[in-house]
Write a structure and sequence with these properties.
With 501 residues, chain A is of the alpha/beta class. Chain A has 16 helices and 23 strands. The two termini of chain A are 38 Å apart. The chains are: A alpha/beta (501), B alpha+beta (97). At the A-B interface, strand 6 and helix 6 of A face helix 1, strand 4 and helix 3 of B.
Chain lengths: 501, 97
């Protein structure tokens, strides 16, 4: 109850419609007031403002005026078209009005007193023409280069922001970041309601965009820096820590795609919406196991999204076909989609965002990430774990069943990672290879599986022309030490799991 | 050159003191330097707000020299005659200005 009163006393908010931004501002930017959006060149200021206008016009019945001091209307329309915005159409529908304000100092002589009433008249006229509720000024500081009298300009800008506030127009004012200030000309002195800062960093050739709500008078707001993404669907901001452990725990069980593995999992396979870790050394059949799972899901008519961090989709499909699991037909039917990306192409945050985004668009039932260990190339163990925590939270909230493969090596750091991430997983399956003479034997073992009785037996498996065949080793005459002593790695992992619990 | 017609537009927004001053200053300068070869059109943006866009009007008052080309703009109440003459290309631009 107390929380409600706090919320109510807060000022009105205008949703930006930008995924994530409205979440970190608890509803949007201050309604009827100006908000400053500051950032360096190419940080996405203009796009943020345009998204605010376009979403306002399309989703919130709030027409908008874009007063641009930067580009001409045609260039701008072209720039944002690549992001899926059709400004011309909105202009035709009278939901948007774009006015290009051009100031060329060389063309203008100044003599005597003047004011910027011409700008006010134009803006007022534009607002009235379409009944605008939103305005974007992009980038008004350009005027400082066009007019000589700074004093007049400052007084007039102050008047302009007051004028917009009096008219209850929700405004985004973009500005280039200054050396020590949020803007070159200190506009933050005039716009005190809310300040949003954008940043585009490139660290070790990995680029990350970040957004931060620096100030928001009269409102709660997330104070962290949040990563955001610009792609063909516009801007997506990812609130990093807003997710709570609130996901439901479905009772439904789904097949792993292999009857024998289902049997090892209490006879009924995985829980829907759970997370499965498949770990093992190189060449132990992790991807093939994942492919069986995908095959089963698609056969049930479910949608699968497969993130590849090592191979190309073509390579993976070919390998699986030769292993006896043909997944290409599901791609053709639109049930299986691949998303292949080199881990070191982006920072972890960007990977995370891309995943969110892809999942939101494709809306899959099952997600595979293969192999997650490759992400270590771009982050520390802690970073990767924190990222996976967020991925898992997100997938669980959506009720998506997720399978992660992990390449185990003898490298200590990887071992540690596996220990750390395994606690996030509901089910942990290990695969291993043991060589005896000239024969390599493969083993599979369910190390843990929360909420179900599961087999604690080591099973053997082999590749057939129809995929993997798992066999119980019970009753098999102990041909050697394998059955009696499981491979070394399993023992170690088992110890780890016990210790971690 | 001396017979060239000057087509001038003065943009204002209402009868503000600055607007009145600008018009008076402009008439005086034209009568002295462009007698018989100028025409002034006063555009009040309060009545015609849509016209501000075409000539890229921002500051008021703004004087626009539409002819002879190229287009020139002079903003302010035109109280400095020398600057106005320079702006209209009736005086050579001096570096010290």
């Amino acid at each position: 109850m107390a929380r409600n009163t706090v919320e109510k006393s807060e000022i009105g908010k205008a949703p930006t419609g930008i995924a994530g931004l409205d979440e970190i501002t608890f509803g949007g930017i201050p309604a009827g007031r100006p908000t400053l959006v500051s950032g360096g060149p190419g940080s996405g200021k203009t796009l943020l403002g345009v998204s605010f206008l376009v979403n306002g016009a399309q989703s919130f019945a709030e027409p908008g005026v874009l007063l641009t001091f930067e580009e001409n209307a045609e260039e701008l329309a072209n720039d944002v078209r690549s992001l899926g915005y059709d400004l011309n159409k909105l202009v035709e529908q009278k939901k948007l009005l774009v006015d290009y304000v051009h100031v060329d100092r060389a063309e203008i002589e100044e003599t005597g007193e003047y004011d910027l009433e011409g700008l006010f008249v134009r803006l007022d006229h534009a607002i009235k023409q379409i009944g605008a509720k939103r305005v974007m000024l992009d980038t008004i500081e350009t005027l400082f280069g066009g007019l000589k009298d700074d004093g007049i300009l400052r007084a007039e800008l102050r008047r302009l922001f007051r004028w917009l506030r009096d008219r209850q127009i929700t405004t985004i004012v973009t500005a280039e970041r200054g050396e020590r200030m949020f803007t070159r000309q200190g506009l933050e002195e005039y716009i005190t309601d809310a300040v949003i800062s954008l940043d585009h960093r490139v660290h070790e050739q990995i680029s990350t965009r970040r957004i931060r709500v620096v100030k928001y008078r009269g409102s709660h707001h997330g104070t962290n820096e949040y990563p955001f993404l610009i792609d063909r669907d516009g801007i997506t901001v990812l609130p990093v820590t807003s997710l709570l452990l609130e996901h439901t725990a479905p009772e439904e069980r789904i097949s792993s795609g292999l009857v024998a593995l289902d049997n090892m999992l209490g006879g009924r396979g995985f829980y829907r919406g759970s997370t499965v870790l498949l770990s093992g050394t190189a060449g132990t059949g992790k991807t093939t196991l994942a492919a069986h799972f995908v095959e089963a899901a698609c056969a049930r008519g479910e949608k699968c999204l497969y993130f590849l961090f090592e191979e190309s989709p073509q390579q993976m499909l070919r390998n699986m076909r030769s292993a006896g699991v043909d997944l290409a037909k599901w791609v053709d039917r639109g049930l299986l989609q691949f998303h292949a990306d080199r881990p070191n192409r982006h920072g972890l945050e960007t990977h995370l965002l891309t995943m969110h985004h892809t999942v939101e668009i494709f809306d899959p039932d099952v997600v595979i990430m293969d192999p997650i260990t490759n992400l270590l190339a771009v982050g520390t163990t802690t970073d990767v774990r924190s990222m996976l925590t967020r991925v898992i939270d997100f997938l669980k909230t959506r009720g998506i069943t997720a399978m992660f493969t992990s390449l185990a090596t003898n490298d200590d750091s990887l071992e540690k990672t596996e220990t750390l991430i395994s606690s996030l997983m509901d089910t942990w399956i290990l695969t291993a290879v043991e060589q005896e003479g000239i024969k390599r034997s493969r083993f599979i073992y369910v190390l843990k599986s929360r909420g179900m009785p599961h087999s604690d037996e080591v099973h053997s498996f082999r590749f057939t022309d129809r995929g993997i065949l798992i066999q119980s080793m019970r009753g098999v005459p102990a041909s050697g030490k394998s059955a009696a002593t499981p491979p070394k790695r399993k023992q170690r992992a088992k110890r780890v799991a016990r210790g971690g619990k | 050159m001396a017979t060239e017609m000057f087509d001038l537009r003065l943009y204002v927004a209402g009868q503000t003191p600055k607007a009145v001053r600008a018009f008076a200053n402009l008439r005086k300068i034209c009568d002295e330097h462009l007698a018989g070869r100028y025409q002034i059109e006063v555009i009040d943006l309060v009545d015609n707000p849509a016209l501000g866009r075409g000539d890229q009007i921002l500051a008021l008052p703004t004087l626009v020299r539409r002819l002879p080309t190229p287009i020139k703009k002079i903003i302010g109440d035109l109280s400095n005659t020398e600057r106005v003459l320079v702006g209209l290309d009736l005086r050579p631009r001096r570096t010290s200005a």
